Protein: DUF4350 domain-containing protein
Organism: Halosimplex rubrum
Amino acid sequence: MAFDDYDYPRVAVLVLLVAVNLALVGAMTTSSAAYGPYNGEWDGADTLRTSASESAEVDLATTTDRYGELSAGESLAVVLAPSEPTDGEAAQVQSFVSRGGTLVVAGESPNATDPYLDAVGSSVRVNGTQLRDDQNNYRGPQLPVANNVSDHNLTEGVESVTLNDGTALEPSDAPSFNESDVTPLINSSTVAYLDSNGNETYDTGEPFGSLPVATVEPEGEGHIVAVSDPSAFTNAMLDREGNQAFLAALLDGREHVLLDYSQHSSLPPLVYALITVRTNAPLQLLVSVLAFGAFGTYVNRGRLFAAAESALGRDGDEFDIDDITLDEAAVKALIEDRHPDWDEEYADRVTEAIIRQREGPRNDD
């Protein structure tokens, strides 16, 4: 086919349709929501999801029902930026932890995170004031590098963790963690401070020194890990070597990792639909019936079309394409529409040739 023979309007429409469909597929399988497991931007958790899937089976939970289905002793659950759960949700999470599961709760807002921590049985609370460090930081004091790391299996191989506008953790029922069952895993450097008045500099009286940013406490047969900044597990911050190491230590030895999105609409529509079908037996049955029905229709399409023609009073054997007639004006209009670049004289000759070709066999009879 010569280059000039292409029908450029049709090609353009085809390219547009392909582009639109690719865009729709992308929109259905990705998400721009913060902490979303299919969000590849800096504030997404795509790296968290893919890193976990390298060593464990990953579940994206849209309800807390999934907690009761896991083998708790081999599982890690991660909740980023939570809010207060319902009593039923809290009971399911508590049961998971008490059976031996490890729950990681990362949040920086006390109004949202503290009710969740309290509901699931944790005695740790979030301070909420921005933690800053003028000496040990990444790109600025608002991204402090917490480098006081305790010797613990959950911090094996960890030398530091970088926070992004994070805060500090504090006990709810004791003057300090030294008088509780809570073990600080990672503390800020000795020169970090909580910027209570928000003036971006240290002032006398503001909390100062090595402040906890990650803790662990026993609960039943399991453990609750609190982290003072959910951003520590975002794509951008997991580029930091220390944050990667902390995630690796949390994942070590886990067979199942549950990423809890029961409180967030962070999943792409297609992923959400697939999870909904997978966890809903009646819906699985409906989808199966529809799929088998569609397959049966495709396999028997010939007989179905023949039956439809019969029902409409049409006999395919009696149909002759030569019965369709086009007058000269119709043929010429069609040619002008398909080939607007042809001059009128050439278009007339082609029109006459088409008419003669269609009328020829009939004249021979």
Q: What stands out?
A: The radius of gyration is 33 Å. The CA atoms of residues 159 and 242 lie 6 Å apart. Residues 321-364 form one domain.
